[in-house]
Amino acid sequence: MADAATTANPFAPEHFLNRELSWLAFNQRVLDEALDPTTPLLERVKFFCITSSNLDEFFEVRVAGIKQQIESDVVERSVDGLTATETFRAIHRRVRELVEAQFHCWREQLVPALAKNGIRFLEVRELGPGDRLWVESYFQKQVWPVLTPLGLDPAHPFPQLLNKTLNLIVQLEVRLNGGNHRRLAVVQVPRALPRLVKLPRDDSRQDYVFLAHLVGHYLADLFPGTKLLGHWQFRVTRNSELYIDEEDSANLLKAVEDELHNRRKGEGVRLEVSADCPEEIRAELLDKLHLTEDDLYVIDGPINPVRLMTIVEGDHSPELRDPPFIARVAPALRDQPDLFAAIRERDVLLHHPFDNFSSVVEFLAQAAEDPDVLAIKMTLYRTGGDPRIVGALMNAVRNGKQVTAVVELKARFDEANNIAWARRLEEAGVHVVYGLVGYKVHGKMTLVVRRDADGIRRYVHLATGNYNATTARFYTDLGLFTCRPDFGDDASSLFNLLTGICQFQGTRKLLVAPFELHARMLKLIERETTNAKRGLPARIIAKMNSLVDRQIIEALYRASQAGVKIDLIVRGICCLRPGVPGVSEHITVRSVLDRFLEHSRIFYFENACQPEVFVGSADWMPRNFFRRIEVVFPIEDGNLRDRVQRELLDTVLADNVKARVLQTDGAYQRLKPRRGGTAVRSQTEFMRLASGGAAPKAKSAKEKLRAPVMKLRPRP
């Protein structure tokens, strides 16, 4: 029974989880995949690298923003009640623990296991005579010409080191004016060269030398006439947020391009140094970079492990990897040479990467070649530079069609790539626009206008993921092909809003942020709350990447208090605290991490046994609701709606191998099958279904409302 304080204030700060700490808990789950001995070895290395890549972006964006809040005059508390300073201290403690666990995993588990499988990392001093000769030749020919020693003295100030570059701080002894003097210098490890130097072998062994170790071994050659006292690796992470006043920018493309140059030189937010670096050298680096001890992280292992992905991408034994999976074309489009005819027959739902993304590429290619197609309009957020997608748009222009591309220049860390493709599209004659001032265009949408035998028809593709054939092989996403007139009308209106000068006039089917999505989602949650109070069947299942928005969380709390059964599948950040008596006891939250990145957003509402299912590009976060153009769309076809619930959502909710359940205290516990029970790994099940396996048996209405039985694995 809820206590009086809980009942009086169900939305108190203690009923929310801190956003930043929740993200760090997500990154711990990523690291857990590297720690899991049942994960194939090279996949463990991959997750180890992803942990570092995630942390880099976390410091570049989130920690940088928190430090700016601390330095400002504004003092506010987050939804969980912490100030920026308190949040920074909590981050500091948690990242310390995470980094220590990460590199302990590297030293004690991954390196020995790799060595057992013929993948070794060698020091130069360990090499035999033949390898030593090869390495020296490689250094002289490939590395030496691009090295630049940077002395530090009154005539040579501390250099402006670029973001995330790996460097060596060198301590030297110099003979000056009859005495010995200590000096410091910096040598950047060339980022243009492979971070791992692979030694030549005639057998299956994979032996590597770290480039930084190679540079360090020959450092004396860079400083003739001096005595080398020591050298240590370090790296600085900088604020990488873009700061652009779009209303004052006459040319948005040029403004973004200019700001990209500044990103590489932003304020420092983190210093990483090798574990053997002396205290006085660490202090000197902190002073030069205007950082404090709280910004220092000592690394007992390779700094910048992201570059270790080289060994994951190398040619190694298949038993060290996940079993290969080659996606087939979705059954509805298989053996269908005319995709437009297939879409006219029925709506088509694609579940990537289990359904091959080639169907989307082929849709664009057919549209570009089809003489009956009059126009193509498309949003591009992260293109990945796929020449088939962008090439299809260029080909359509050559074939006399009107082609419009809404390119989002501010897609974080893809800005330079998008700028390059935007210019190529413009040169080819595509009408390129950059959306609405002040908003990122994050919705995924393609509109093809075609002259069919019975009149003009609009074919629409809507999706949860980007038009990126590379990530479509590794991200789980949904896409819908339809030619329903209402969808075509809404897509046309939205493209007119993005390319022209007009006001949002509302939509029939699509839910569009920032105009109405937030309000519509609140109403859908409130409807389930009302139904529960009336004794009608009420349930919510929502799958997303992040749950942060306070109003949505409070609406879910009210629904739980009314008795609505709520199952949330949240891959990353979740600020909702489940299981609080009297507040959220009817809410479960789970996160699934597996070989593919969970990326689809699905929202199921029971609606008194008349379920509605929505799919789209938006997470339940303020930025998605209010600062982005997002598109969420209903699944209108009854068979597809049932498939989303029965085949997708129910399977994920039954996962007891790769799912972790969020506890009331903010910790995650991994599920495992009951003794004698069946193990369910949702992504493996999806691969089985895509390869021709039978679909799960339909459930009764009573079974649909019953929560899946779970057994928690104790936390270590």
Counted by DSSP, the helix tally is: 20
Structural class: alpha/beta
Low-pLDDT residue spans: 1-8, 242-250, 259-264, 695-716
Q: What is the helix content?
A: 25-40%
Task: Describe how the helices and strands are arranged.
Elements (H helix, E strand, L loop, with lengths): L3 H5 L10 H17 L5 H31 L12 H33 L2 E3 L7 H15 L5 E4 L13 E11 L2 E10 L7 E3 L7 E5 H7 L9 E12 L13 H12 L4 E7 L4 H10 L7 E4 L9 H5 L25 H7 L2 E5 L5 H12 L3 E8 L6 H12 L3 E6 L7 H14 L2 E3 L6 E2 L2 E9 L2 E9 L11 E8 L2 H15 L11 E3 L3 H17 L5 E6 L5 H12 L3 E6 L16 E6 L4 E2 L2 E5 L6 E5 L5 H5 L1 E7 L3 H16 L5 E4 L5 E3 L11 H9 L10 H5 L11
Helix pairs in contact: 2-3, 2-4, 3-4, 11-12, 15-16, 18-19
Describe the 3D structure.
It is a single chain. The chain is of the alpha/beta class and 716 residues long. The strands form four sheets. Strands 14, 18, 19, 20, 21, 23, 24, 25, 26 and 27 form a ten-stranded mixed β-sheet that branches. Strands 10, 11, 12, 13, 15, 16, 17 and 22 form an eight-stranded mixed β-sheet that branches. Strands 2-4-3-7-8-9 form a six-stranded mixed β-sheet, with helices on both faces. Helix 2 runs parallel beside helix 4 (84-116), helix 11 packs parallel to helix 12 (387-398) and helix 18 (638-653) packs antiparallel against helix 19 (682-690). The longest helix is centred in the first third of the chain and has 33 residues, at 84-116.
Question: What would you say about this model in short?
Answer:
The chain is of the alpha/beta class and 716 residues long. Helix content is 36%, strand content 22%. It folds into four domains: 4-98, Polyphosphate kinase N-terminal domain (Methane Monooxygenase Hydroxylase, Chain G, domain 1); 125-320, Polyphosphate kinase middle domain (polyphosphate kinase like); 339-509, Endonuclease Chain A (Endonuclease, Chain A, 2-Layer Sandwich); 512-705, Endonuclease, Chain A, CATH 3.30.870.
